[in-house]
Amino acid sequence: MDGSCELHFDCGTLVAPTLPDDARLLALFQKDGRTGVYRAPAWHYRDVVLRLRELGVGYDDRAKRFEPLEVALTVPIQPFPHQSAALEAWTKAGGRGLVELPTGAGKTLLAVLAIAHVKRPTLVVVPTLDLMTQWQGVLARHFSVPVGMLGGGVNDRQSLTVTTYDSAAMQTEFHGNRFGLLVCDECHHLPAPSYRFIAEGSLAPYRLGLTATLERTDGGERVCEELLGPRVHRTDIRELQGEYLAPYEVKQVAVPLTADEKARYDEARALYLNFVRKLGVRLSAPDGWARFLAQSQRSDEGRAAYRAYREQRRIALTSSGKQEVLWRILLAHREDRVLVFTDDNETVYTLARRLLLPALTHHTPVPERKALLAAFSSGELPVLLTSRVLNEGVDVPEARVGVVLSGSGSVREHVQRLGRILRKRPGKRALLYEVCSAQTAESGISERRRQHDAYQEEP
């Protein structure tokens, strides 16, 4: 439509050569001193268009490169009540917002329903290549249009496209005007400085953020709310267990260090903490850990303190008692599919050699990773050892038992690991073991990561 205002897309920004004299509209833009045009982050596109319509100002929209998409479900979906409630809340919010659902509660199918509802070209952004392939398969099963992928050596953009955060961050300036719906899976990744531009540089008027645990320790969830919309729906794990998720139990196992391990642990920890106190660094402060790392590399004393930190941590996370407990758990659950989680790859490979079990890390080539997951699914491999690569998204519905041998203090990581074993199966009752070294700093780490409703005892 010809009019008095033109809108253009330029490398992730919205450009208008002229604007009507309206305070609300002008507040969204800045005058570009180099070119004399008005420029705004592309994500303001929706607000700009709506305001122009309110003012009755004609405009020539040369920014967007998408139109309504004729897309319908090839097979009808009967959503669960929590999916229907989430879709209704998102729709009432104008097709913008965040949905928090437990792992296994059907976030992917919720996105399928959202795509079918808004009927716009859609970009789905996911954290890993495994998830990209998984999402592409789900979308291809439910829609008759081609589903493209961007990432992992694949460069196939379609009206429905799945990409990774890394790939999207590099390509948004080129295709940020080609999608009407932006879906960010595991959207708690979005606030990272290198990823924000995915949402900031996109015109998409419709936005959906999906996550099992929105909160971040740095308050970054506010970035998600600003760029994707407010949290419109949340369903807790305990609301779904038994009917839509497998019922579960969490067992803590405290393992004492041997006398030799305890002596070496205390010596290393004392050396590390003495250096921290000498620096006057508070590790609980937001910049405490970064300050310790910086200072530890500036002297022989600092480097010794950092080695001591690594040693006391290694002893606590990989004690001989933990390995014995793991073996007993595996024997007790020899008929079950078991996932074993650790905090680092070194521990995974050590256990793999000692127990002659398969290991899956981010170093595992994609073909081998697919083969391992297929063998686990079929029961050919009843146990998988992993570090963090299975924390997010990958479907392993046959897993009934999880063993956390070590991990960070992150609540999100712990909830994600629990979620890996909650996929519903007839007669299934999931069991998560958390194995901690007693009388070490790991006890405090365990307490921090258990601050979630999923780990609280029911009244």
Description:
Helix content is 40%, strand content 19%. With 459 residues, the protein is α/β, with parallel strands linked by helices. It folds into 4 domains: 5-62, MutS, DNA mismatch repair protein, domain I (3-Layer(aba) Sandwich); 81-235, 3-Layer(aba) Sandwich (Rossmann fold); 248-256 and 319-455, P-loop containing nucleotide triphosphate hydrolases (Rossmann fold, 3-Layer(aba) Sandwich), CATH 3.40.50; 259-317, no CATH class. The strands form 3 sheets. Strands 9-8-10-7-11-12-6-13 form an 8-stranded mixed β-sheet, sandwiched between helices. It has a 6-stranded parallel β-sheet with strand order 14-19-18-15-17-16, sandwiched between helices. The protein has a 5-stranded mixed β-sheet with strand order 3-4-2-1-5, with no helix packed on it. Helix 3 packs across helix 4 and helix 10 packs antiparallel against helix 12. It is globular, with a radius of gyration of 25 Å.
